Amino acid sequence: MEALNNLFEGFAGAVSPINLLWVVVGAVLGTAVGVLPGLGSAMAVALLLPVTFSLDPIGAFIMFAGVYYGGLFGDSTTGILLNTPGNSSAIATTFEGHRMAKAGRAPQALATSAIGAFTGGMIATTLVVFFAPHLAELASLFGPAEYFALAVFAFVATATVVAESVIKGLAALVIGLALAMVGIDGPSGASRFTLGMPQLFDGVAIVVITVGLLALGEVLFVASRIHRDKGRTTTPFTGRPWLSRSDVRKAWPAWLRGAGFGVPFGVIPVGGSEIPTFMAYGTERRLDRRRKNPMFGKGAIQGVAAPEAAGNATAGSAMGALLALGLPTSATAAIMLAAFQQYGMQPGPLLFERNAELVWTLLASLFIGMVVLLILNLPFAPLWAKLLMIPKHYLYAGISVFCGLGVYATSSSTADLVLLLLIGLLGFMMRRYGLPLAPVLIAVILGPLAETELRRALAVSEGDVGILFDSGIAVTLYVILALAVLFMVVNKIRRRVRQDI
User: Fold this and answer.
1) Percent of the chain clearing pLDDT 90 (strictly above)
2) Neighbours of 404 (CB within 10 A)
3) CA-CA-CA-CA torsion sign (320, 325, 331, 333)
C-alpha cells in the first residue's frame, strides 16, 4: 500500500500542465529520433541531454521518460516499413514485421508493435513499482560463468531455432562472431582481423552491421530481382487499417509471453534487450511450427507482437534496476545514469529516501508517457504505412541515402561508409544463398560479452574450465539448451522418416 500511495503522489506531480507538455515533447522527439536509421533511444537521450540542463530535475526526467519509450517506439517503425531498425532492440521485430509490410499489412504490423510496446512497458513498470527490490536480487545471482552460459544459450538457440537449416544457422553465427572479433583485444592490446588498418582498431560498429545487413542488403537484393516485379511498383494495403478480432486473438498471448521474457532480463546487465527479443521471437516461431497453417516467413503477427513486448518490458524493468541499484543494464540506462549524476544524484537504495518526490514522479511519468505514445502512434499507423506507397525505385534509393547518412552521422567516418557497402554486399549474398541474418546479429551483439565473461571466469579460476559448470544457473541453462537441441534433432529425424515413407 505504501508503494501505491507514493505512486499516487507521483501522479499528482506528473499531471501538471507543464509536466504533461514535457512528456508529450519527449515522446514526439524520442519517436522522431528513433525512426532515423542508425539512431535510437540511447542516441535520443544522449542528444537531448544538454537540452534539459535549463529545466528543473523533475521536468528534465519527465521529458526523458517520454524520450526513453518514444525512442523504442520509433526504433521498430522503420524496421517494419523499410527493414531498417533504428536500434538493435528492434531487429527481431523487423523479420516478420517487414514481411507483413511487404504483404500489404503494414498498418496492422505497426499497430501490433505499438500495442505490444505499450503492453510490455506497462507490465514491467507496474512490477517495478511494487517489486523493484525483489527484481534487483536477480541481478546479484549472475557472475561471469552465468553470463557466458546465457550468451551460449542465445547463440545456439538462435542458430538452431531461427534458421531453417542448422548448418546455415551455425555458418551465419560464425560470420557474426568473426565480425565481432575485429578490433583491438582489450586484455592483450593486440589487433585482431584489422588488416593493419587503424580505422578498424575500434571494431565494426553495430550500427554499420545492422544497417548494412538489414537495409542495404535488402536494397541490393531487391535491385537484383527488380526485373521480376516490373508491373508492381507499390505495395497496396490489404484489410482494415486496424487490428481485427482474429489479429488480436493471435497477438495477445504473444504480447504476454514477450513481456514474460523481457521483465527478468531488464535487471541483468547483458547489454540491452537483444536476448529477450530474440528468445521471444524464437519461442513464437517454435509454437508456430505446431499449427496447421504456419505463418512465420510469410508475415506472422506473433513475430511482431512478442519481440516488441519483450523489448519494452526489458526497458521498463531496466529502469527499476537503475533506480533501485544504480545498475545500468543497457546503453540507454547508462546515459540516464549520467543524467542523474549531472543533477548531483546517485541512483540506488538511498535515492528513494533522499529524492523520493523525483523517483515516484518519474515512475508515474513512465505510465503517462506510454499512454501518450499509444495515442500518438496508433492513429498514425496507416499514415506511416503510406511510405510503402512510394514507387520502389524511389523508395529504395531513399533508403540507401538514409543508410549512408545514418551511418556517417554516428561516426563521421568515410571508412564506415566503405564497411557499410561491403557488409551490404555480405547481406545480399546471405539472402541469395538462404543464410539467416538473425544469428549474425545476435553473435555481433553478444560476442564481446561472451568473450569478456569467459576470460573473467577463467581468470578467477586460474584456467580451470570447471568453473563454467559450478553454478546451478549455468548448468540449468546448458541442460535446457541440450534438451531443446535434442528435441529439435529428434523432430527432424521423424520428419525425414515420414517423408521417406
Assistant:
1) 3
2) 18
3) positive
Query: Count of alpha carbons within 13 Å of 460, Cβ hemisphere only?
Result: 12
Alpha carbons 214 and 85: distance in angstroms, whole number: 8
Length of the chain: 501
Grid coordinates standing for 340? 542523474
The answer to whether the CB of 138 falls within 8 A of the CB of 128 is no
- Confidence bin at 231 (pLDDT 50/70/90): very low
Q: What letter represents residue 60's amino acid?
A: A
303: nearest Cα among 237, 242, 248, 258: 258
pLDDT per residue as tens digits for the range 299-324: 889 889 999 898 888 888 877 777 77
pLDDT value for 329: 62
Confidence (pTM): 0.67
Task: Tell me what the mean pLDDT of segment 379-396 comes to.
Answer: 70
Residue 130 pLDDT:
79
Residue 40 φ/ψ region, left for φ over 0, alpha for ψ in the -120 to 50 degree band, beta for the rest:
left
What is the spatial distance between Cα 472 and Cα 475, in angstroms, rounded to a whole number? Answer: 5
Give Cβ neighbours of residue 485 (< 8 Å, ≥ 6 apart).
156, 160
Q: Are 112 and 304 in contact (CB under 8 A)?
A: yes
275: Cα separation from own chain's centroid: 8
